Amino acid sequence: MKVGIDKIGFYSPDKYIDMVDLANARNEDPNKYLIGIGQKKQAVIPNTQDVVTMAANASQKIINDDDKKSIDLIIFGTETGVDNSKSAAIYLQNLLKLNASARAFEIKQACYGATAGLQMAKEYVTNHPNKKALVIGADVARYGLNTPGEVTQGGGAIAMVVSTNPSIASFDGESAFHSDDIMDFWRPLYRTEAVVDGHYSNNVYVDFFKDTWDKYNQMNQLSVDDYKALTFHLPYVKMGIKGLRAVLTEASESKQEELKNEFNFSKIYSENIGNLYTGSLYLSFLSLINNSNDLQSGDRIGLFSYGSGAQGEFFSMKLEQNFKNNDSVEDINSMLNNREKLTIDEYETMFNNWIPIKNVNMNLNWQSDDAEFFLKALKDNQRIYDHK
């Protein structure tokens, strides 16, 4: 019995900044951002969108009435939760009018949360073949204005339906994972911006990748030649390049070229959106299958998930017959091409208008938000969500 990803939806708001504009505003050489970091554009998140609304906007693109009847597990991976107690999954369940006879909860381990959810969904669906699970990876990456991490901000949501007989990709063997108590990135409860030791985090990321890569291939008797492509958690594109380079020496020249070419397809969405935290790996996977013309059913795709603090996991999936969805390709291309470009002043104003971590009553400018689901107001310590 095959279990895997049956559908993938993606949403990010309709505003962005250009990295050349940001570099000029910060008195930096644009190539530091374009080449050194590997970013072209960055999504800007208005305060009418949070992880709940972005998850709803991503999910509504892929969920039909049959899914609503079959989904009885909702797992929400995020490190940008909207409440320290109530799960974002409960809000999402209500907004999408999903089955009330369902388990719904939130899971957190930095950027690894959606992978933890995906693996839990795999086990659940394997034991309940007639059921489906909805797994979310949604976040807003914030480091602050005029900080070293500013260029790696971004945000959005990935939604995945996990089922038997999946249309997109099926799980292939057991995962390899590694965890350690590491202070490379964290976000204290009193901050909306992350604290990061960038150089240390880069090194840990590559070390965790190599560790789980070696373990996985030993466990499953595989080598680099058995993979059509490798996809990575991409907090910024250059990070994935560093990971890929760590194993290219194991491959022949022709295989190296193939892996590099496929990686170029996997980075297209990320280099135009920025950091998705929990959803980043799966945006990379979606970018690969939507943009590469050389993939075939049965191809093995490697996936490396990393969450600072730290947790790493490597696993692989095999593409299924209907892995490429032309509607998804057109939808995301339209989303990226029709966004509004902000000036740096406009972006800074929007960044500073983010919802504060304190009790405030606010009516938000939801009328200017074109998304189907949005945050309308904050009242009496509650978030008021609505839809059009």
Characterise this structure.
The structure is a single chain. The chain has 388 residues and is α+β, with helices and mostly antiparallel strands. It folds into 2 domains: 3-167 and 326-387, Thiolase/Chalcone synthase (Peroxisomal Thiolase, Chain A, domain 1), CATH 3.40.47.10; 170-319, Thiolase/Chalcone synthase (Peroxisomal Thiolase, Chain A, domain 1). The protein is 36% helix and 25% strand. It contains 13 helices and 18 strands. The chain has helices at 19-25, 30-37, 51-59, 65-70, 88-95, 113-127, 198-220, 237-248, 253-266, 268-273, 280-291, 326-337, 344-352, and strands at 3-11, 15-18, 41-43, 71-77, 103-107, 132-141, 154-164, 169-171, 176-179, 185-186, 195-196, 229-232, 300-307, 311-319, 340-341, 362-363, 373-379, 382-387. The strands form 4 sheets. Strands 1, 4, 5, 6, 7, 8, 9, 12, 13 and 14 form a 10-stranded mixed β-sheet that branches. Strands 3-2-15 form a 3-stranded mixed β-sheet. A 3-stranded antiparallel β-sheet has the order 16-17-18, covered by helices on one side. The longest helix is centred in the middle third of the chain and has 23 residues, at 198-220. The radius of gyration is 20 Å and the shape is globular. The mean pLDDT is 97.
